[in-house]
């Protein structure tokens, strides 16, 4: 079984260091001429997968925009994930789950188990009940060759009070990064990956020099770095260079509205423009 990190590294090399979100905002659905219901969500998501298959490293469905429609939305999400699997497109399901014990185990089975219709190649996880609270998801991801992105240094202003807080002189973000590094080291020792570990971090592209100030060595994680904030949120080449520096070869830059706003007919060109912009920085 090829681990998620190695699969992502291969997709990144072939299709560029770009991930496009599948975020069916009501405003975007309206702009695409789609209804804000299960059918509209399905059409929206399937169009993104169809148009961008083989042109981006991964797609990232945002679960919240599907869940707001209840069972109809979740059914649409299942169909989008299935279409991506069929098309050979890696999926990062943006669910940001975090809990303890059997509840965390339930979330893990929902998104990382081979038998689940909601299974993705990787998920985003919130570690702020403690890194080890994620153990059920981390272990299941490892057993099934999937991956996880741990929220570490996010760009929302409220995050700083938690992520940059220090205990015994070490920031919370640095402890989360160290946890991810340990997971990757264990997987590598077991011969489970060669190019990139399966456990990565979510690091906002708009955070500036925060990583260094928080004592986080991004390169030492040995896993992928998911960088939201490109395009509509204001980050570009200069911000990517400032934030990621020597860890640039591990970054997958993520954009949602900046690409999706181009509409179904403009997706290809918008994704290619994003790929060209960030490739000049991240693969140089």
Automatic annotation (TrEMBL):
* PANTHER family from the UniProt entry: OROTIDINE 5'-PHOSPHATE DECARBOXYLASE (PTHR43375:SF1)
* Top class in the EC scheme: lyase
The cross-references to InterPro entries, in alphabetical order and at most eight, read: Aldolase_TIM, OMPdecase_AS, OMPdecase_type-2, OMPdeCOase_dom, RibuloseP-bd_barrel
Gene from which the chain derives: pyrF
- Quote the SMART domains the UniProt record gives: OMPdecase
Question: Which of UniProt's keywords are assigned here?
Answer: Decarboxylase, Lyase, Pyrimidine biosynthesis
Q: Which family does it belong to?
A: Belongs to the OMP decarboxylase family. Type 2 subfamily.
**Involved pathway(s):** Pyrimidine metabolism; UMP biosynthesis via de novo pathway; UMP from orotate: step 2/2
**Pfam families per the UniProt record, alphabetical:** OMPdecase
* Cleavable signal peptide: none
Q: Which GO terms fall under molecular function for this chain's record?
A: orotidine-5'-phosphate decarboxylase activity
Annotated protein name in UniProt: Orotidine 5'-phosphate decarboxylase
Q: What is its EC number?
A: 4.1.1.23
Organism, by scientific name, is Georgenia deserti
**List of catalytic residues:** 96 (proton donor)
């Amino acid at each position: 079984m090829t681990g998620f990190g190695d699969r992502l590294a291969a997709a990144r090399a072939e299709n560029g260091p770009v991930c496009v979100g599948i975020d069916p905002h009501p405003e975007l659905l309206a702009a695409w001429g789609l209804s804000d219901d299960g059918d509209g969500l399905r059409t929206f998501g399937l169009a993104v997968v169809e148009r961008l298959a083989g042109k981006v490293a991964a797609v990232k469905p945002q679960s919240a925009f599907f869940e707001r429609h209840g069972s109809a939305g979740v059914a649409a999400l299942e169909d989008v994930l299935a279409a991506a699997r069929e098309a050979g497109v890696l999926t990062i399901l943006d669910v940001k789950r975090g809990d303890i014990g059997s509840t965390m185990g339930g979330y893990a089975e929902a998104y990382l188990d081979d038998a689940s219709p909601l299974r993705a190649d990787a998920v985003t996880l919130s570690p702020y009940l403690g890194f080890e609270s994620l153990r059920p998801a981390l272990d299941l991801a490892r057993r099934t060759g999937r991956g996880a992105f741990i929220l570490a240094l996010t760009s929302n202003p409220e995050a700083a009070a938690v992520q940059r807080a220090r205990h015994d002189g070490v920031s919370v973000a640095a402890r989360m990064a160290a946890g991810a590094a340990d997971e990757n080291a264990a997987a590598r020792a077991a011969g489970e990956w060669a190019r990139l570990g399966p456990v990565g971090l979510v690091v906002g592209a708009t955070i500036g020099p925060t990583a260094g100030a928080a004592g986080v060595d991004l390169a030492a994680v040995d896993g992928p770095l998911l960088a939201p904030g490109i395009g509509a949120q204001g980050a570009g080449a200069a911000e990517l260079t400032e934030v990621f520096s020597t860890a640039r070869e591990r970054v997958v830059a993520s954009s949602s509205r900046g690409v999706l706003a181009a509409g179904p007919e403009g997706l290809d060109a918008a994704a290619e423009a994003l790929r060209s912009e960030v490739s000049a920085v991240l693969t140089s």
